[in-house]
Design a protein that fits this description.
Distance between the termini: 50 Å
Radius of gyration: 20 Å
Number of helices: 6
Shape: elongated
Order of helices and strands: HHHHHH
Keywords: Membrane, Transmembrane, Transmembrane helix
Structural class: mainly alpha
Largest sheet: none
Number of domains: 1
Number of strands: 0
Strand content: under 5%
Amino acid sequence: MSRFVHALPAGQTRAAAAAANGSTTVQDYLERIAKYVPAEIIATYVAVTSGFANTDEPLKYWCLLVSFLICWIFTPIYLQLMSSPADKDALRTQQIVSAIAFPIWAYSISGDSGLFGDPKLPIYHAEISTALILLFSLISGAIIPRKAAPAVVPVHAGS
């Protein structure tokens, strides 16, 4: 399975595109959910921030915040670096959706021991975390990038 979401050809329905790929629309929907999650960046964030678990305040807060911001900013850059020319139609959509996904997953995975549970930023709630992950997954699977329609060159009579 490629890391990138595939763009739907202009004018083609979801069902027709799925049939052409030998998959189902449900399978394509679930694959989009998985591909939009920047798993490599989230794994890096978890690994880096776990190293700050025993760091004293206020240094811990600043280390967690800087780690979060670097990973968030790097998400679309990473996707750009990993893309190939075949991914160009879906790249911008994937960068945007993945940039939205990162803070949601970082909030949920780090829990009350991470940045969002820190005494300086005490906004972590397990109920909100669950709702964010479920709603994001539901919505992101429905986002399908489209290939650009081929340019039409006007033909002038008598030129």
